[in-house]
């Protein structure tokens, strides 16, 4: 294992933050996988899963079973990790700008299109290599005037040329679920099966440039840009399979669960060609090809994820369980104003899977308290929460 330290732009004199990446295998000798934990720095389950991944990858590397390079970031956001507000961790938004750490990644399409125009041929492998060189060059040219810009640039630099990208997060309270783009679902479905995830949310483009889409969607968007310049240009393959994994809720921090999740991730990486697994490992060859889940049940449109919203402030009391399939109009919670005694029933807006909810039991008027994943796309525009 090679440990690398990446110094971020200092926010003020006397301060310095560092990003640490762990590298297994040999760079440029085969496929590249990238796994990062807790870009939202207060989402702790991801860091525990990364801890178990680190131990297992060290074993597999010693046994010569890492093919190419696997890059692991055990804590992807040192800026957010340092933020506390009134003794509470605050790792989702950067306090200086108010920006979400998992939004607004730079758009590299125009810069890469300018660099590769006229260089691509009918050789798909050569084209991928050419585009990846241009992607690395475009990342190096990004501004890093602020600490947040330098964090985003460094994360993109480490990940943008990966074949497989796994971004580990969690929700407030939730069942395990995934996000990916609609074209990538066949390549992501085996991970959903290996993890036992009952839900993967799909979108062609969810909006606001989250990290995983900034790395995966560059390929289809670059193809479109090049086709506008030359209608005879060959389409580029989807060369980066990227996904976000929501590891249940913030309080789901247990060694047995994290270890099982890490093993599922390793099985998926083996299926993707990043590991060679033998029968004497904890993951045998039979487990290296996880079965695809039932696509009808396991994948639903992100545009069909509908919020349950509080009509007034109060104490909200769940009456439906996480993971329940609920009917449209079915009560999922009660909301009680402790001063007036007013009580409201909160009902599911659609038939679907109750997959996530807020872990704070007193809410303000207009606040979202839960999310239900329906089968029909009903929303438009930006599909991710703030």
Give the helices and strands, then pairings.
Elements: E1 2-7, E2 18-25, E3 32-37, H1 45-62, E4 69-73, H2 78-81, E5 84-85, E6 88-89, H3 109-116, H4 124-140, H5 147-159, E7 164-171, E8 173-174, E9 177-181, H6 185-195, E10 199-203, H7 211-216, H8 218-229, E11 241-249, H9 255-271, H10 295-298, E12 299-301, E13 305-309, E14 314-318, E15 325-326, E16 331-336, E17 343-347, E18 352-357, E19 362-363, E20 368-374
Parallel strand pairs: 3-4, 3-7, 7-11, 9-10, 10-12
Antiparallel strand pairs: 1-2, 2-4, 5-6, 8-18, 9-11, 13-20, 14-16, 14-19, 15-18, 16-17, 18-20
Helix pairs in contact: 1-9, 3-4, 3-8, 4-5, 6-9
Poorly predicted regions are: 280-288
For this structure, what is the CATH homologous superfamily of the largest domain?
Zn peptidases
| Content-based structural category | alpha+beta
Number of strands: 20
Rg from C-alpha positions? 21 Å
Strand content range: 25-35%
CATH topology descriptor of the largest domain: Aminopeptidase
Provide tags for this entry.
single chain, 386 residues, alpha+beta, Aminopeptidase, OB fold (Dihydrolipoamide Acetyltransferase, E2P), 2 domains, nine-stranded mixed beta sheet, five-stranded antiparallel beta sheet, 10 helices, AstE_AspA_cat, metal-binding, hydrolase
Verbal overview:
This is Succinylglutamate desuccinylase/aspartoacylase family protein. It comes from Ideonella margarita. The chain has 386 residues and is of the alpha+beta class. The protein has helices at 45-62, 78-81, 109-116, 124-140, 147-159, 185-195, 211-216, 218-229, 255-271, 295-298; strands spanning 2-7, 18-25, 32-37, 69-73, 84-85, 88-89, 164-171, 173-174, 177-181, 199-203, 241-249, 299-301, 305-309, 314-318, 325-326, 331-336, 343-347, 352-357, 362-363, 368-374. The protein has ten helices and 20 strands. Helix 3 (109-116) packs across helix 4. The relative contact order is 0.14.
């Amino acid at each position: 294992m090679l440990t690398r330290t990446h110094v971020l732009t200092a926010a003020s004199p006397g301060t310095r933050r560092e990003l640490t990446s762990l590298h297994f295998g040999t760079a440029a000798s085969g496929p590249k996988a990238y796994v990062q934990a807790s870009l939202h720095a207060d989402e702790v389950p991801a860091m525990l899963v990364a801890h178990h991944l680190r131990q297992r990858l060290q074993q597999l590397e010693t046994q010569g079973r890492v093919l190419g390079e696997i890059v692991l970031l055990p804590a992807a956001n040192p800026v957010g990790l340092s933020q506390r507000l009134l003794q509470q961790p605050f790792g989702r938004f950067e306090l200086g700008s108010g920006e979400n750490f998992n939004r607004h990644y730079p758009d590299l399409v125009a810069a890469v299109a300018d660099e590769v125009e006229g260089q691509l041929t009918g050789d798909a492998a050569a084209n991928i290599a050419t585009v990846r060189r241009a992607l690395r060059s475009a990342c190096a040219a990004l501004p890093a005037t602020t600490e947040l810009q330098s964090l985003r640039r460094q994360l993109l630099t480490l990940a943008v040329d990966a074949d497989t990208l796994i971004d580990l997060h969690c929700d407030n309270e939730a069942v395990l679920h995934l996000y990916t783009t609609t074209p990538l679902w066949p390549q992501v479905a085996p991970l959903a099966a290996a993890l036992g995830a009952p839900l993967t949310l799909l979108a062609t483009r969810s909006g606001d440039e989250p990290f995983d889409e900034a790395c995966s969607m560059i390929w289809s968007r670059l193809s479109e840009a090049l086709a506008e310049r030359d209608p005879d240009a060959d389409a580029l393959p989807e060369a980066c399979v990227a996904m976000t994994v929501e590891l249940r809720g913030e309080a789901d921090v247990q060694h047995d669960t994290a270890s099982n999740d890490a093993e599922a991730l390793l099985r998926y990486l083996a299926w993707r060609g990043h590991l060679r697994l033998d029968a004497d490992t904890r993951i045998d060859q039979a487990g290296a090809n996880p079965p695809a889940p039932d696509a009808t049940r396991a994948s639903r449109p992100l545009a069909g994820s509908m919020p349950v919203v509080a009509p007034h402030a109060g104490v909200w009391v769940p009456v439906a369980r996480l993971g329940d399939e609920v009917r449209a109009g079915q009560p999922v919670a009660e909301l009680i104003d402790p001063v007036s005694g007013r009580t409201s029933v909160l009902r599911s807006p659609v038939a679907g899977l109750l997959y996530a909810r807020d872990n704070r039991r007193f809410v303000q008027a207009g606040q979202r308290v839960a999310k239900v994943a329906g089968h029909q796309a009903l929303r438009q525009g930006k599909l991710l929460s703030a």
